[in-house]
Fold this protein.
Amino acid sequence: MTYKELLTDGIAILTKSDIQSASTNAELLLCHYANLSKIELSFKKNEIINDISIIENYKKGIIERSTNKPLQYIIGQITFYNISLYINENVLIPRPETEELVELVIKNSTALLKTKTPEINIIDLCSGSGCVSLALAKHYEKHKNINIVGIDISKDAVDVALFNKKNLSLKNINYINIDFFDFIKHQQSNTNSTKYDIIVCNPPYISESDYHQLDKELFFEPRIALTDEHNGLTFFQAIADNIDYLLSPKGTIFFECGLYQAEKIKRLFEEKHHSAIIHKDFAGIDRFLQIK
């Protein structure tokens, strides 16, 4: 069997299963299992495949994809903000919008880095795969006074983040397996607890009612990372209610949020007398908030 014949078979199966971008998906899977770039594959299309494991693994991958299992979970790898991350079904698949969240944090933290503060503390709440905090850690790798920590309720997610930390050889970041609300209780009860100069949070913001209307591919992702099982605002409200226990006096919070949530979240913080700025994503959607 040639690479072209194998690819054609894969496209046919994915097309029959109504997988969007069937050709692209089939090609990416073949590149993955054959360890080839797209350009290399284009030159090899008429060559006979001598390694039977490529054929077997590719066919398994195509069958998995035909069930709507996301391509990223099958491949187990994704590029996020110029770093390569391992992911599995214990964590959300990092989205392009979340790369914009990282960029927002970096662009709006320049003044903080110019201060003579001995230590700058950053926390990533609901850190998942670690994509946001790892991207920040990589960007700030040469800033020895920056400490970054990520927390997540899922031990499996923390294990993924720690694997990525090790794989990227980052020393300025750590992860803690703790429930978000237990973390807030800890902050409340410990007067000497760290106040954070930058808080970044991409929490479960899909409401319980909206969760059931999601695209079927999203049901492969961990439910606990998608919905708060309520109105989608639970985590934002908890941070607004406890901001004085979490944020340093001159600190900033950066959020990612869902459709039609930004104005509601803005009001939550303005009611507590904190300034809130809404930022749009590249699609023009109110997607991020900056709280001071």
Notes: The mean pLDDT is 96. The two ends are 61 Å apart (CA to CA).
